[in-house]
């Protein structure tokens, strides 16, 4: 594939993924994530700030990365085991991330 074609493909995939994340936020009733989308904020940084109880500007790249996996993993039904494997963290920590996400987001609740 051409470099230009690959860039278009990558942009298309990213647009699709963002659309899926927005649909998840809308369907689940996650008001904070919907607000972040509306304001053009980094949804993964916003999720990390909520999950770790810190200001968005205090979120580390590692925290953002973990919550990015939580955001997309939950959309696709990831388990604590699956999340722990992908992030290379203990299963208990992965379970806490998922539980905290659901508690704070009000998703599906």
Classification by helices and strands: mainly alpha
Question: What is the beta-strand fraction?
Answer: under 5%
Shape: globular
How helical, in percent, are the residues?
Answer: over 70%
- Using the CA coordinates, give the radius of gyration: 15 Å
Number of strands: 0
Estimate the mean pLDDT confidence: 79
What characteristics describe this protein?
109 residues, mainly alpha, 0% strand
Secondary structure blueprint with pairings:
Elements: H1 3-28, H2 31-38, H3 43-52, H4 61-75, H5 80-87, H6 91-105
Summarize this entry quickly.
The chain has one domain. It contains six helices and no strands.
How would you characterize the overall build of this protein?
With about 110 residues, this protein is an all-alpha fold. The chain has one domain. The chain has six helices and no strands. The protein has helices spanning about 5-30, 30-40, 45-50, 60-75, 80-85, 90-105. The chain starts with a helix and ends with a helix. The mean pLDDT is about 80.
């Amino acid at each position: 594939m051409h470099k230009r074609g690959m860039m278009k493909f990558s942009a298309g995939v990213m647009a699709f993924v963002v659309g899926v994340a927005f649909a998840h936020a809308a369907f689940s009733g996650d008001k904070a994530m919907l607000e972040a989308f509306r304001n053009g904020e980094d949804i993964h940084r916003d999720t990390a700030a909520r999950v770790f109880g810190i200001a968005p500007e205090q979120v580390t790249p590692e925290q953002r990365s973990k919550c990015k996996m939580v955001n997309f993993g939950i959309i696709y039904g990831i388990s604590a085991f699956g999340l722990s494997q992908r992030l290379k963290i203990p299963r208990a920590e992965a379970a806490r991330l998922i539980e905290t996400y659901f508690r704070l987001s009000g998703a599906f609740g």
